[in-house]
Amino acid sequence: MDPPSLQELARKQDELVRASDNKENLDLVMASRDLKGLQNVASRVMQKTATEVCLIGQGGFNMVFAIQFEDGSDIIARVHGSPALQDVNESKEELLLRIESEFATIRYLKEKTTIPVPEVLHLELSFDNSVGAPYTLQERIIGGRVSDMQDQGMSSDQFAEVVKQVARYEAQLLELSFDAIGSLMYDSVTTKFRVDKATLSSISLPPNRGPWNSTADYLHSLVSLQRSDLCKGDWIENRTKWLADLNDMIESPLEDINAEARADHAHYTSWFTMLEEALEQVDFSAFDPPNYPFVLVHDDLSIGNVFVDYFDPSCVRNIIDWEGSRVVPFWLAISEQFVSYYDLYDESLVARLSAMRLDILRSSIKGFPDAKTLGAMQNLVGLHTVARVKLCNLPVAIANEAVDNFATGRSPDEAKHFKQMMDLGLAYVNPQSKEMAHLLGW
Fold this sequence. Notes:
This is Kinase-like domain-containing protein. By secondary structure, this protein is an alpha+beta fold. The chain has helices at 6-19, 23-31, 35-46, 92-112, 146-149, 156-174, 215-230, 235-247, 257-279, 330-333, 341-344, 347-364, 371-388, 396-408, 412-415, 419-428, 431-439; strands spanning 50-58, 62-69, 74-80, 120-124, 135-139, 144-145, 183-187, 192-196, 294-297, 306-308, 316-319, 326-329.
């Protein structure tokens, strides 16, 4: 199919906005952004006259504008701010660190890999500028999102080829090692990359933001975050709202949601204290360097962030949205899944594609873990999920199962330290929690 014009992309985006609930928020954000200022900056940076600026996309943290020039060429501007208002309460300092880390990551990928990412032409790390927000000017790579191309007749063979290419790009990431866990930064003076403290991503920041030198230190920081969140005054209120949303969807609804939320808070407060103590007794060194490296991970590698060629949808042209990327232990990176059931609604096909991805990684990476070690890593991922997700939205049944799976795979000497908390969890969990866990796909 022929690539759509910028005007067609802008019209489609306008239709999406009008059909969404975010029109008012978009108007609010747009009112504080000076597109004429953006046009002038683009003209200065590219040394030619920009003639048009149009909104062609938006994500959780940014709006994407296409800027066209008098000679017919164009570039992309990613301007901070989104009608989703996901980070409206975050400090400017934290927002700028996240943008800076994304810039460093893209630069690193350009230097060290063949992963298709756009060239960053200009970086503005300030809110005090003619545009009204931080932004980047980037090369525009023409392509369509895989999620959109599926609606345009993309075949299953073409989709499978995309999965293969993405797996090979993942393998490149998993072959590059770092000395710590955290977020990637670039020093323009020394022209070197470094792993620094964790920046904003899809989770809150732990009190200790790293960089961390081991799996143990990283997990302890996440558990500390959960314990500090439990001390916040709005935890029970947020839990009540979440329970209310799910209560209408289960067969045996809770009779007293407020009482359940208060009980869950008391349970998790005790349970996470026990978890923190139990983790002190676990030796995680087998999962760390030199056995397995710390590696760079995208954090949201999905069909919505991969663009393919319009004429040949089996060819990956661009992978976007590296803003949440970070350096993590190998066991966490290997657990990422590019394809989910909701991408294809075909369990057997998803299973085949996932197996194909794993085969590609296994054949591409030296020292790839055997099946037993992969199983242990998967159990560790489950533990990480409990430590990382928003706890007020986590059924107790899921927390129980994840920790039980992890403890079962450890030595008897280590597993015994989890017995008290597992007994507490099993005695506390109710049928409604199990129903909610099932509803969430666990």
